[in-house]
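Format notes (please read before filing issues)

Several people have asked whether sequences and structure tokens are stored in separate files. They are not. Every record keeps both together, in the order shown below: the sequence lines, then the token lines. Line labels are part of the format and must not be stripped during preprocessing.
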Amino acid sequence: LHLPPAIGSGYIKAGELTNGLQVLINECIVNEEVNFCRQPAVDESYTLRFDEVKNLKSLSIQIDEDKLNEEEQVYSGAFLTNSLSDFSYVANAGIQDRCVNIYFTANWLKTHAGIESADEAFKEYLSLKTATFNFEVMNLEYRELMEDIFEIKDNHPMQKVILQNRVMLLIEKFFRSLYNRMGQNKKTAAIIKDTTIKRMMQIESILV
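Then the structure lines:
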């Protein structure tokens, strides 16, 4: 899907991989205010989001009753959402948005990663919702994998293989980091302030 000039420029595309994952990829500039809302689903599933948003003036993210407001010019991060929760966000007109969203069911996660929704570390992570600790800074490794995905040509003979490989590497890196963070001493994790995370996001964006 290519955005019409009245709305913006760029593309949004979605597809299903051979291993059952669904992926949504977009690179676009949006001329209008962005208002996204996802209501809770009956069956449990997850969306792993990798977002880089520039030209921000305001960004509001809400998961159930928890709300996070951002006013930085650049937002970049990775986080996981649960389909059982309300999820919405509002961003100003004129943003430049690049994202890779990966959708999978609870059964897929159990079958392919050996992680069950009842897993204690996994449950604790989801309970944090919009807390800063829930957001993974978009470091160079994530960015390189995302760039590989954005550069894949539709007519490339290895398109599906490359895409599935990079998506699986994103998932592996995210969950490795999740379990490392959730396994840390809680006192150590608690001293990571919101302002520190934002500075890390800014530095990462400058370095690339």
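For reference, the curators noted about this record: The longest helix spans residues 159-182. The mean pLDDT is 80.
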